[in-house]
Write a structure and sequence with these properties.
The protein is an alpha/beta fold. It is built from 16 helices and five strands. α6 links the parallel β3 and β4.
Amino acid sequence: MRTWKDLQEIQPRVVPMLVSSIKKNRLTHAYLFEGEAGSGKMDVALQMAKSFFCKEQTGAEPCHRCVECKRIDHGNHPDIHRIAPDGASIKKEQIEFLQKEFAYRGMESASKVYVVSHVDKMTISAANSLLKFLEEPQGPTLALLLTEQGSQLLPTIRSRTQLFSFTPPSREAFAARLEEKGYSKQLAVLLAHIASNETEVAQINEGDWTSQARSVMLQLMQELYTRPEHAYVTLTDKWVPLLKERRQQELGLDMMFLWLKDLLYTQVGKQDGLIFASNQSQLEQLALSTSQLSVSQSMSKVMEARKQLNANVNIQLVMEKLLLTIREE
């Protein structure tokens, strides 16, 4: 159970303003939460939903015990609708379905909440549909739009929401919380850098996926720099089969980027706080065999590969091209 006080420790500027609006009953109909992954946007959004629906709250703080609060905790509240990209983007049909749902009276009240994750990934037609929805809210609604790339949104959408910029997350504090929940230190540190909240951690680590992906990624990158002929076998036999879904593909590239960043930090003598600290000796050996410029360019190539995923390029082709360009650096 997270309280507003807990969330204020993560976002000391944003949370007090939201809490003040809740206490004064002055919530606007639409908010845009902009900030890096891990900054607590979804946690704050769900807490706002609790405060919006809870009938037994004290001040701004929901009771966390009533049916409304428990349903939100379990992700099955009938009047809260969550939208996320279907594949690479949020489609017009998803927004139209949302509009249709909101045309009906709430299951148990007239109030409704919708949370749109990665709202910057809407298609143009979806964005235009959402814009109309924002301009003509039906009944008491609360729109919570979440993004890591607010600059990619239509200016007209930004102008119809109240913007809150979230400060970058404290990865150390997030990792410490995950360790308290039983994750190993090395896995907690990695998860704190690729996930935005504990709910997402549970989702991406289903079936111990993160641990498996971490192990294969380390093998792949080690081979790429020492035995490149083996790297392509590992890519085909182990790495790509792990990246079945788009989100897993993005996370796989995120892991590669973080490993390269550790390699760069090792080259410049900043070994404190390495994400892959248990592999420091290997990183130190590899740091002697490549240049800082080469590693920096490889990091850029990984980011380009991530953009290719959004263009629906096949993951096998994306990864093969990426390995080839890294070897040529």
